Amino acid sequence: MESTSATTSRTLHPPEQMGNSAAIAYGGCTLGVAAKAAANSVPSNYRLYSLVGQYLGPALIDRVLKASIRTIRQTRTFATRLVEVSQTTDGGEDRACLIALADFQVPEEASLLEYSATPTRTYSHHSVLEEGGKQRQRAVDAGMLPQALRDGFEIGFGLMARFFETRPCPEGVFAQNFNGLMKNAATTQDGLPVAEKGTADWIRSLEKLPDHAENMAALAFLMDGATGFVALGFSNMFLEDSGAASSLDFALRVFDNEVDIAKWHLKEVVTHVGAEGRTYAEVRLWGEDGKCVASMTQQTILRPKKEKKGKL
């Protein structure tokens, strides 16, 4: 990103798409820009602990993103920033894609209580797992996954692979039905209600990131993944089975002041509720020491396809 004024900045490149065939950007691109812009606006000793807001519309992949920052609060302990991410339309006007409140705190000297939630089930450790691409090729070689579908997967979800190494856990639904692409694949969780299923990956960035702002941008980018279609994948469906599936809001909470995305973390995705044309999903991230370092909750619009009416 480059600064364009004391309160505005823009990306050097347009955002990119992932997991969706429409010419719109992966939401994690917009979210990462918001996190980085907000983190760059506070003193270097402040740490992000909350990024809460709304997706206002899809970002396009043919133009850069712009971020504007407004200071809401600045004290010796806390800082709050209002961040808006937008793009310039063909008519020259700014169209908002996302708006969020980012909260920061100077690290405390000590914690009165320390505890952490655990994953919903036991997952294999990354040390005994292969990288996701190798896992999928083994599935092709074993006749479990068509080569064309595997190739489509690598293209559709290739953006994540450019920045992160991912090792899917075989106990998770998405390692068994390939993110829902294999709709009829049997999984070990088939007998469970959708809200009791889970999927997980071990993941780390391919490069060491230089500072807190970069790590928060990468964290936000990473945590947005799968929330929009997890309920579909847990229900033997994929994006083409819905009339609309797009994230509406987000709440990123950070529980570790020094998250290092270059280290291995376990990322688990679950969904809690589906109702009123929306789903509610959660992503949580644990370090190798078992400490939960971040969570992301989102509501997603999930409309059924409109029935085609026959002509008389």
UniProtKB/TrEMBL annotation:
Domain Acyl-CoA thioesterase-like N-terminal HotDog span(s) in chain numbering: 15-105
InterPro entries for the chain: ACOT8-like_C (IPR049450), Acyl-CoA_hotdog (IPR042171), Acyl_CoA_thio (IPR003703), HotDog_dom_sf (IPR029069), TesB_ACOT8-like_N (IPR049449)
Keywords recorded for this protein, A-Z: Hydrolase
GO biological process terms, semicolon-separated: acyl-CoA metabolic process; fatty acid catabolic process
Annotated ranges, domain Acyl-CoA thioesterase-like C-terminal: 174-301
GO MF annotation: an example: fatty acyl-CoA hydrolase activity
Any one cellular-component term (Gene Ontology): peroxisomal matrix
Similarity comment: Belongs to the C/M/P thioester hydrolase family.
Protein name: Thioesterase/thiol ester dehydrase-isomerase
Source organism per UniProt: Melanomma pulvis-pyrius CBS 109.77
